[in-house]
Structure formats: C-alpha cells, structure tokens
Give the backbone structure.
Amino acid sequence: MTPRLIIRDLSVRYAGSETAALDGISLDLAAGERLAVIGESGSGKSTLALAIAGLLPGSALVAGRIEWPGLGRPPVAGADIGFVFQDPGASLDPVMPVGAQIAEVIRAHRPLGRAAANATAVDLIARVQLPEPGQIALAYPHQLSGGQRQRIAIAAAIAAGPKLLIADEPTSALDTIVQAEIVALIDRLVQADGMSLIFISHDIALASGIADRIAVFRRGRLVELGERDQIIGQPRDAYTRALLDASMPATPQSAGAPA
C-alpha cells in the first residue's frame, strides 16, 4: 500500500541554535494508521508536527523531504491536515462564539454558505459528544471547561475532512479522566473517517491506548520505531525503557460523561 506520508532525512535547525531540533528523521505513515510520537520536552516532537503541517517559522532551516503520495500537490493546513494544539485556550478566539469559529474553518475549505456552515458546525459539536450542541455553538471559550474547549478544537480540526490529523499534546492540560475521554474520542473519529493520525505525547502509557505504532524521539533523533506491542513489551532502547518505567502501569480507561 502506498504511504500517505513519507519523511526522509528531515532535519530542522532554528536560527541562533547550535543544536538541531530534528536530525535526520525518516518514517512513513500509512492511510488510516495511528502513529504515536513520544519523548520528553525538547525531543523534537512538536517540531516534527509543525514541519509536516508547513507551520515552521520562516527562520527555520529545513533539509530533507516530506512527500504526500497520491495527493498530487502540497497539502493545505486546515484542509488536508487537521491540527489539534496543546492549549485550546490559546488556539480558540476568545471573542468569537465557538460555533462561529468552526463554521469559519468550514467556509474557508468547503463550498458552503453561512447557514449551511453554521448547521454543519452544530453537527460537528454533536459529533465530539458535547451536550446541547446548539447552545454550545453560541458559547464563548471562557464559558466552557478545558475538556469542552479541547472538544471544540477537535471539531474545528476535522471540519474540512482532513486526511491527516495531528494532535500535539492534546491532553496535557487536562485531568486524568478527561485525558482518557479525549484520547477515546480522537480514536473513534480517526477510525470513522479513515484519517491517519499523529498523536504527540510525553506519556507513553496514554499514547499506547491509541497507537498502531510508536516512534520514540530523544534530542531530535528517532531512537526507536515499532509496533505498539513490541515497543511496550520488548523495547530495544534504554531511553524507551526509561519512559515506560516512568509512566506504566497507568493506562487509559474509558470514562463517562464528557467534561
């Protein structure tokens, strides 16, 4: 099967830094595959996500290749790639109702008028399992809980029907129960829509509940890549074993009502 995404010898260095944020990264991502990218802060996880989405600052020095077989053109962030950021409070506009923000994404990438986009936004709010979606659509971000805001951010990220969803530490600001709910929600949406997923986290136990494969990053390098069960059960690298020791045996649990 032709990969959806091919990365070869990708290196990224930020201006003024003597250390590469990414150093010679090569990996493939299949259609519908769920890849967890794991590592401590500063390991290059978010730089990888930004490079894939074309969101690196102009001052970044980039070498290597990122290819999209079958797309036939460079991907469009927001349309071909959905991005869920770590802090929904920062990614959502504080002075615009959340439904209008989702509708804005829809109208930017789909041929829908205002009324149809607003109706689709309400449908998406229902799809991310928020109650009374019509009322939620009229709310402002500060009127919602952290878990609710992240669900809105996920709805906006999938609004244009992307082929790839990147979730960059989407649960780090949430409590344990809500973390598990968000991971389960992302998993359901990805599988239902046939999206590929890159799920970025420092928590290997949490990510193991959603991943087909796990990539372990350290200091800008890919130190281990393998099937989830192999990485969890028989890690080859000492750094991977240290991450497992730090986070296991905690595992995601399905939870009740949305937060």
About this structure: The CA atoms of residues 86 and 172 lie 7 Å apart. The domain at 1-80+164-259 is CATH 3.40.50.300 (Rossmann fold). Confidence is low (pLDDT under 50) at residues 250-257. The radius of gyration is 18 Å.
